[in-house]
Amino acid sequence: MAPLLIIDPGHGGIDPGGGSNQLFTEKKMVLDISLYQYRRFQELGIEVAITRTEDITLDSETRAEIVRSSDADYCISNHINTGGGRGAEAIYSIYATAALPSTLLDQLEAVGMPRRRVFTRAYPGNPRLDYYYMHRETGKVETVILEYGFADNPLDAQKIDTDWEALSEAVVRGFCEHTGKTYRPPSGSDTPAPNPPNGTPVNWDSLPDWKREGVDWLYEQGLLTSADWRSQIDQPLPLWAEAVVLRRFYEKLRGNS
Asked: CA-to-CA distance for 199 and 230, rounded, in angstroms?
């Protein structure tokens, strides 16, 4: 059975990655992040694969072939940036949409990593080809290149070094939200789940019109995206979800100004 997702820890072996500093090397940090996510997706019952589980060298062709032959629906390729910026970035194929990368950055922002940008890039001189190899050569697999922050930015570097597990978990949560999979926080964690554990699902048809209209508006405006909230509308949103809704509302207002 083909996995839903394949995780790709960038670099490895003789390639340490450019996103390295005195706190960590990119190849080691993204492997730690990827192995954490790999374990969590297995705990959640989500079919998942991974391109490497140890510090080995994978050239671009081999890496892309592993992803392509996995026949997965999605790939998250984990990286750490460099070059003087600040915040997380997500890069998607010219043949995909910004939906998944935007959701992943929403969740990273909710745990304290600033959102820099979501973007796509075509090959110079040929707008029908992706610029990035991991988009161009991974076939039908929807690949997102995820940059968790900038290794040469002290704030980003410290955040990644001390909170890499929270950042890793944020991506797990975002992927579940995008794909409609049930999310549960790690055992013993204080991280709230989108479905409040003690909440009683509501009968949507029995709700008063003013409640349904209000919630419908939130979905129509894109302020809420996960269908899970429809059955828990009388439950409080956890702080991270409130932050996501407020940021989306702010961006909508700014875009209309």
From this structure: 12
